[in-house]
Amino acid sequence: MRYTSTRSRSVSVSFETAICTGYASDGGLYVPESIPSITADALCKWSNLSYPNLAFAILRLFIAKDEITDEELRSICASAMQAFDDPDQAIPVVEVGTTMYVAELFRGPTFCFKDLGMRVLIGLLSHFTSEGSGKNMTLLVSTTGDTGPAAVQAVADVNNPRLSLLVHYPMGQISDFQRRQLTTVTSDRVKVVAYQGGGDDMDLPIKRILSSAPDDKVWTGVNSYNIGRPLMQLVHYVWTYLRVVEREAAKRGAACDYTQEVAFVIPTGAMGNIAGGYMAKQMGLPIRKLVAAVNANDASHRVIQHGELRKLPMIKTLSEAMNVQIPYNLERLLFYCTGQDHALIASWMKQVDSSDCLDLSSWLDRLQEDFASATASDEQVCAAISSALATHQYCIDPHTAVGWCAAEQLGYYTTAAEAESSSASLGCPAVLLATASPCKFQNAYATALGPDGWTAYTASPQYPAGARRILEGEELPPAIYKAESTLEASQRAWEVYARDLIRELEQP
Ligand SMILES: *Cc1c(COP(=O)(O)O)cnc(C)c1O
Q: How far is the CA of 162 from the centre of ligand 1 (A)?
């Protein structure tokens, strides 16, 4: 399988080049040249596989054997899942109420769904920089949330002397728990930096550095514009689908029906997760609708409801990992939605780059065939956290809570009483993707339930044991990039500083 750009069919690169460069040379995002199909028979066969073996079976369809052998790919998938609570059954699918399932995507080492895509991607990058490849690779990340911890842990775990990570976070603007996840990992392959600036101020220096890599160096980003992330993220849709179909069959006392449709509700920010789901749907996985659940930063909701993309000022919310102004994976969604029309995507993205807006109203019907959406305020999020606990003794984090609200608004989640009087039922099972554990978000959780609510949670069996280890670990102080008189001056100075640190990391 080769990879092409959303913006031009003439781009054709290997899988290795696609994941090692991040963006395509024309500024577009990499996508596979063709989409393999999933049949009901294949789903039936896959239903017996462990998570690592399912990941292998699916990734095998997207990566040529002359790039990675079966044995190597199997081993990468197995190692990536090893740090999960239960590697073979990595994602528990639980039932809440009578009409909705919750897939717990957060049972990895950093308590967030990003472990699922990140750990395999970093395993693959490590494979391409293995001994004898003659290559050194440095990964660059700026994080305001969960991407950084997932990347730090994954790089520390692969422990490859030729693979390093430089990770940045805005000082004072991530949760204490997230900071500790960055600063308590001891690995000489990882360098952590706090910069005196806001959310995405480090993005521009990083972009400049990545676009200037010398020929003998591989520098790349591992945010979800990197195709390795959505590719691996389509696996959890297949896994979750299989588990839901099994439960439904058991309830009816019938055989599994692998043509049964299932709706997915996805707490959404940059649309990397939902892009994985859309690729699974393109392959033929019977997905009724992909529901984008967003907070007050509702760009993707506006696209799906009104066909209007516009960059609006960032709003602070309790679900910070979803505070996204322009969801960059929308480009991949539109690519598939238009039947892979490279030229149209190129002209649309040119318009977005120059004006930060785009009129998609003539595509609205097409978009709404595949997608639905809803938005939730912080008040609604707090009410959902509270009601999940009161009704089901189930603790949810603020991001999952946004999805919970969306499921309620769209009629996917109903109480037993409502289900009995059943106009509310939509005739297809729905599953909410739970993207993080509440253990990462003390502030939001306590805002919803008070300090006693938090204390009760930390004493409950739902509080992960690994979270305690992070709170007790010793912090190594990060490097600091100081602010200069203007943002522009800061960004220039930080770029120089970052290049120095990359040089240090690359010393053998
Ligand atoms: C990153 C993140 C999201 C959003 O995922 P996207 O792929 O950016 O849409 C949702 N919830 C949590 C907890 C996250 O860390």
A: 29
Contacts of 63 (CB under 8 A, 6+ apart): 1, 15, 73
Contact 88, 121 (CB under 8 A): no
Measure 248 CA to ligand 1 centroid, in angstroms.
Answer: 28
- ∠ CA 298-142-446, nearest 5°, is 60
| 3-state SS, residue 70 | helix
The model carries a pTM of: 0.95
Residue 497 DSSP class: H
Atom of ligand 1 nearest to the CA of 272: 7
Least trusted range by pLDDT, from 106-120, 205-219, 487-501: 205-219
Distance CA 231, CA 223 (A): 13
What is the CA(468)–ligand 1 centre distance, in A?
23
Tens of pLDDT along 383-413? 999 999 999 999 999 999 999 999 999 988 7
- Pairing outcome for strands 3-5 and 8-13: antiparallel
Among protein residues, the one whose CA lies closest to atom 2 of ligand 1 = 321
At position 170, the amino acid (one-letter code) is: P
Secondary structure of 169-238 in the HEC alphabet?
EECCCCCHHHHHHHHCCCCCCEEEEEECCCCCCCHHHHHHHHCCCCCCCEEEECCCCCCHHHHHHHHHHH
Say if CB 455 and CB 463 are below 8 A apart.
no
Ligand 1 centre distance from Cα of residue 267 (Å)? 7
On whether the CB atoms of residues 360 and 309 are closer than 8 A, the answer is yes
| Each residue's pLDDT tens digit, 252-307 | 999 999 999 999 999 999 999 999 999 999 999 999 999 999 999 999 999 999 99
Helix (H) or strand (E) holding 290, with range, is: strand 287-294
Ligand 1: nearest atom to the Cα of 146: 15
Enumerate residues lining ligand 1, CB below 6 A. Answer: 112, 114, 145-146, 224, 267-273, 321-322, 399, 435-436
